[in-house]
Amino acid sequence: MNYEYGSCTRKPLEVRLRVSEAPDVVVLGLDVPDHGTGLCAGTGQSGRDVIRLDEPLGDRVVLDATSRLPLLCRRAPDACRSSIA
Fold first, then answer.
1. Would 18 be classed as within a structural domain?
2. What's the pLDDT tens digit per position in 70-80?
3. How far is the C-alpha of 85 from the C-alpha of 44, rounded, in Å?
4. How many Å apart are CA 50 and CA 46, to the nearest integer?
5. Distance separating alpha carbons of residues 6 and 71, to the nearest angstrom
6. What pLDDT score does 5 carry?
7. Structural domain of residue 9, as residue ranges?
8. Would you call 37 exposed, middle or buried from its count of C-beta atoms within 10 A (0-12, 13-18, 19+)?
9. What pLDDT shows up at residue 84?
10. How far apart are CA 34 and CA 18, in angstroms?
11. Residue 26, class by beta-carbon neighbours within 10 Å (0-12 exposed, 13-18 middle, 19+ buried)?
12. Domains: count for the chain
């Protein structure tokens, strides 16, 4: 899965993906470490990681952990596609 986040530094941060599963929904989130206080330009950073689910995605809805809104499949196609590995 590809993801994007803001950073107040030009260096990539130690971002961790987190997932929560229920029978009808999968919730994906990012844990971005605190990077200080004060003014921040919010430089865009990106990363890529693999999320392993306990059960196949199937017809479950994939939600963003912060907004609780569904992820758009066009922006996150890997999160909206079920595959058995």
1. yes
2. 876 655 556 55
3. 31
4. 14
5. 18
6. 72
7. 2-67
8. exposed
9. 44
10. 17
11. buried
12. 1
